[in-house]
Design a protein that fits this description.
347 residues; binds nicotinamide-adenine-dinucleotide; Dihydrodipicolinate Reductase, domain 2; alpha/beta; globular
Length: 347
């Protein structure tokens, strides 16, 4: 008979996001969750995390799926493995799955998850933390207004260098496999910029454009040493996506939208930082409202959602069709941006 009523969590992947984001949040919710098990193809990564959090190392993913003490799985492997791990977790009938963003890496991943979801009712939460940020959740009326009437939307992310970006920017070009030329590398870095960085804001951008609006990327430039500047249109809306990793610029993370009579500016805290929610500034023709910041951040809200869902209680998370729509949106931007790079290189 089970005496510990806390929800048992299993980590699939024991890398940076687990150590710096999920473990600290679960530490704050230790009355409700216990970290039960860790699986990573890198055994020493699994062992070191398991030792740090007092969990078991599981010898294989199948064992984790079969273990009833692992009730919730966190998929925190690289994007190319997400769909496979999510689908397996659904088939195993876990109580809930938290899969880090992005949803996957290719269109094939959609079919894999949809097939598993067709015979399973396991809730899936994709960890796009800004979509769960209380500063964003609190402005749903403004978001609905922008969906109807926004003229322009801008996502701008400026971050200092960290080990990860440094590795991409400095190791990839000189150490790239010989079959990759400069154009291939530019496309690879563009893809990373969109799927690793811009992806945080893309579900929010999509929420502010009409459902199904066709998108056209009008320009896409990779920035040295690591970044992207992309302009696109969605129907009659103009969207700018800017991301730059630079040490001398002031870090900032903003999402803005403007209509004829309202403007919205959301300021987020950087990812990996547990510093409360975004703050929204909404300016109308007569007055400006400030919403937030709230004490909790998007990561904490993700885990609140997982707690409720794992207990069988309702909690409003984006449905599967919506997260798949967000993923298609991101892939469409990747494809069109890479096509722009290829077209530019051919001129
Ligand atoms: N929400 C956020 O703010 C945020 C921040 C960073 C990363 N992420 C996302 O989290 C995911 C993981 O990122 P990370 O920074 O922790 O990466 P990481 O490289 O630090 O860790 C990934 C881990 O997965 C392991 N792994 C790889 N393939 C595996 C497999 N088939 N089975 C088991 N383990 C496997 C690796 O050995 C590694 O330890 C990515 O999808 C990334 O985009 C999200």
């Amino acid at each position: 008979m089970k005496t510990d009523e806390r929800i048992g969590v299993g980590f699939v992947g024991a890398g940076a996001v687990v150590k710096t984001i999920h473990v600290p949040v679960l530490g704050q919710m230790a009355q409700e969750f216990r970290i039960e098990a860790v699986w990573d193809i890198n055994t020493s990564a699994a062992e070191s995390l398991a030792q740090q959090v007092g969990a078991r190392v599981i010898p294989g993913f199948e064992e984790m799926l079969a273990d009833p003490r692992v009730e919730v799985i966190v998929v925190a492997t690289p994007a190319g493995c997400h769909a496979e791990h999510v689908a397996a977790g659904m088939r195993a009938g876990k109580r809930a799955i938290l899969c880090e963003k992005p949803f996957g890496s290719s269109l094939d991943d959609i079919r894999l998850v949809e097939e598993a979801a067709a015979t399973s009712d396991v809730p899936l939460l994709i960890g796009a933390m800004h979509a769960f940020d209380p500063g964003w959740s609190a402005i749903s009326e403004t978001v609905a207004h922008m969906r109807e009437q926004a003229v322009a939307i801008r996502s701008s992310i400026v971050l200092p260098f960290n080990e990860r970006f440094e590795q991409w920017a400095t190791e990839l070009p000189p150490r790239a496999p010989p079959e990759l030329d400069a154009e291939d590398i530019a496309m690879l870095l563009m893809r990373m910029g969109i799927m690793e960085l811009a992806i945080h804001d893309l579900p929010l951008v999509r929420a502010m454009i009409p459902e199904g609006a066709p998108i056209t990327v009008t320009s896409a430039m990779p920035l040295e040493p690591f970044g992207y500047a992309i302009s696109l249109s969605a129907g009659d809306r103009v969207i700018d996506l800017f991301g730059y990793i630079h040490d001398s610029w002031k870090p900032s993370w903003e999402l803005e939208a403007v209509s004829a009579d309202q403007s919205l500016c959301l300021e987020f805290t950087p990812s990996f930082v547990h510093a409360g929610s975004a703050t929204a500034r909404i300016s109308g023709t007569l007055e400006t409202d400030i919403v937030g910041p709230f004490a909790r951040n998007g990561y904490q809200m993700e885990w609140q959602a997982i707690r409720e869902l794992a207990r069988g209680r309702p909690f409003p998370i984006p449905p599967l069709a919506q997260v798949i729509g967000d993923f298609r949106f991101a892939l469409d931007i990747v494809e069109q941006s890479c096509a722009k790079i290829a077209a530019g290189a051919g001129q």
